[in-house]
Amino acid sequence: MKTYKNIIRTIVALTAISLTTSCSDFLDEEDESNFTTDTYFTKAEHAESAVNGIYEPLVPITNSGFGGGTWLMLEFATGLANTSLGQATNIYLVKDLINNSDNGYGSSFWNEYYTGISRANLAIEKIPEINMDETAKQNYLAEAKFFRAYYYFGLVRMFGNIPIITESVDLTSEQLYPEQASPETVYDLIVSDLTEAENSSLPWRDESGRVTLGAIKTLLADVYLTMGGYPLQKTENFQLAANKAKEVIDSGQYTIFDSYDDLHNPATKNTGEYIFMTQFAANIQSANWQPAILPYNLGISAYSAQTGGIFSTNEFANSYEAGDKRAEEKQFYFTSYSLEADRSDSVNLGAPYIFKHFDVQANEESAQSDLNWCIYRYSDVLLMYAEAVNEAEGTPSADAYAAINEIRQRAEIADLSGLSQEAFRNAVRIERIHELSFENKTWFDMARWRKAYNPETNQLEDFVGHNFSYLPNKALTERELLFPIPTSEMQNNPNLSQNTGY
Fold first, then answer.
1. pLDDT of res. 171
2. What are the backbone angles phi and psi of residue 272, rounded to the nearest 5°?
3. CA gap 343, 35 in Å, rounded
C-alpha cells in the first residue's frame, strides 16, 4: 500500500514538454535555480520520479463533476448509457450522435495521453544516461515503454491517423508540427515497445500498483486482438493474442473474485482479479468518479455533488440472461438506496445506476473514495483468450469454453457448449459487453468488430446502420467509428487532416 501512495504523492520535478507550446515573455527569462532536462537526470531517484510522472495522466480521465467526465465519452458512444445531467454538453454531443471537434472529452483524452507520451519519451531518452543499477534501469524503461504503448493504443483507436512522436520536443524540434501516421505504423510502434518491455525483470504482479509483466502481456494480448479486427484485419494476430492471454492465464498469478462486491471494495485493489489500475488513495488523491454515478440530488450520498451523470439504459440492464447474478440488485447495478439523512429509509432511483463502481464507505460516510479505477482485470483476459482462440482455430476449443464458462459460472448462468464458430463468436462478444460494462471497453470492441449491441433483441448488428434504443430515427454511420481530432489541435498543427464526417 505504501508504494502506490508514494506514486500518488510524488510531485515530478520535470515539466513535461507538450505537443503544442504557447509563447509568452517568461520564455525569455532564465532561472538558474531550476532543473532542466539536461541537468536533472543524474541519479536513480530521478529515474523513479520521471517514471512516476508517466502514471499521472491516467488520473484526470476519471475525474467527474457537474460537467461530466472524460471517461463518459466512451460509454455514451455505445448507446447503452443514459444521463440526467442536463448541463454536460459534451455528453449529449456523443450520446445524440451530433459530436464535433469542440467536444472537451475528446480534447482531454488527446491532451492527457500525449502528455503521457511526452513524459515517456523523455524517460526513455534520458534514463539510459543515468549511472545506476542496470536491472532497475531496465525496469524503469519497461514501465515507460508500457505507458507509451498504452497511450498510443488509446489514441489510435479513438482518433485513427495520429502523429507519432518518439522524442522529447521543444520549440526547435522537427516534431513540433508532426504529420499523421497510419494506424498500422502506430501499431508497429506499440508492439515494439511492449515486446521490449517484456524482456525486463518486472514481477508478474505488484500490489503497489506499478506496471508488471502481467500488465504488459495483457496489454499486448489486447493489442494483437484489436489488430486482428478492424481496421487492420491482420487475422494472423488472433493466434498471437491467444498466446499472450494464455501466458497470463498460465502464470497462475490472477484469479477472478468470488464476489462482485470485491470489484468495488478498496481492500482488494491491486490483488486477485486486478491486473492494472489507476491508483487512488482517500484523503491524498481520492477517486473522483463517484459523483457521476450517483443519481441527481436524491440525497443518498455524503458527497455534496450527486450529478446523475451516467446510468444504464433500462434496455441494457434488462438484457442479461434470466438468473444472471450480475443483473441482481446491488451487483452490477442498483435501483434503490438508503437516504444519507436516514439510512433506515430508502429511495427509488428511477433508473439502474452503476454499482460496480460504487464506493459504499465513501458514499455513506467520508465522501473520500479509496477505490482504484480498473484498466485491466483477469475476466477481460479470459474473454480475450476465448475470442482469440475461436478466431485463430476456426472453432471453440475446450480451453476457450473453460475461459468463458469461468465468467458465466460466477454469474450463475449455464455453461456454453456445442457451438459453431459463429455462434461462439457472438456469445463471447455479448459476454464481454455484459461482463465489462461501463469499464471503457465496449466502444473499442464495437469499433474493432464493426458490430453494435441491440439490448432489446440480445443480438449484434452491423455498426453502420445501428440505432440506439433512444434514437430510433438516427443511425450510426462510418463517421462514428472514430472521434474527431480536437479543434485546438487542428488549429495549432497545419499538418493534421480531420477525420471524415467532422
1. 66
2. 55, -110
3. 53
Task: Tell me the one-letter amino acid at 154.
Answer: G
pLDDT, tens digit, 9 for 90 and up, residues 35-66 = 666 778 889 999 999 999 999 999 999 999 99
Measure the CA–CA gap between 397 and 389, rounded to whole angstroms.
7
Separation CA 483–CA 110 (nearest Å):
11
- CA distance linking residue 487 with residue 107, whole number of Å: 8
> Contact 358/293 with Cβ under 8 angstroms?
yes
Count Cβ atoms below 10 Å from residue 477 Cβ, excluding itself.
Answer: 14
Helices (H), 331-478: 360-361, 378-393, 398-410, 421-435, 442-449
295 preceded by a cis bond (ω within 30 of 0): no
Q: Give me the phi and psi of 392, to 5 degrees please.
A: -75, -40
Q: What's residue 113's pLDDT? A: 98
Q: Contact at 8 Å (CB) between 392 and 242?
A: yes
Q: Say if residues 493 and 20 touch (Cβ distance below 8 Å).
A: yes
Q: Which amino acid is at 475?
A: A
Q: What is the pLDDT of residue 25?
A: 34
CA distances, 246 to each of 222, 254, 378 (Å):
12, 12, 11
> Measuring CA to CA, which residue among 424, 476, 449 is closest to residue 80?
476
- Cα-to-chain-centroid distance, residue 222: 12
Contact 218, 376 (CB under 8 A): yes
The β-bridge relationship of strands 451-454 and 342-354 is: unpaired
Q: Which stretches in the chain have pLDDT values below 70? A: 1-37, 171-172
Label the pairing between strands 162-163 and 180-181. Answer: antiparallel
Residue 444 near residue 74 (C-beta atoms within 8 A): yes
Cell of 91: 455528453
The C-alpha cell that represents 248 in the structure block:
497470463
- Do 45 and 67 touch, CB atoms closer than 8 A? no
Cα dihedral: 17, 21, 26, 31 (round 10): 10
How much is the pLDDT for 315? 98
What is the 3-state secondary structure of 271-304? CCCEEEEECCECCCECECCHHHHCCCCCCCCCCC
CA–CA distance, 379 with 111 (Å, rounded to integer): 30
Residue 252: all three cell numbers together? 497462475
Q: Name the one residue in this structure whose C-alpha cell is 500500500.
A: 1
Contact (Cβ atoms closer than 8 angstroms) between residue 428 and residue 383: yes
Helix (H), strand (E) at residue 459: strand 459-462
- pLDDT on residue 36: 66
pTM: 0.93
Kindly write down the DSSP assignment for every residue of 342-376, as one continuous string: EEEEEEEEEEEEE-TT--HHIIIIIS-B-PPEEEE
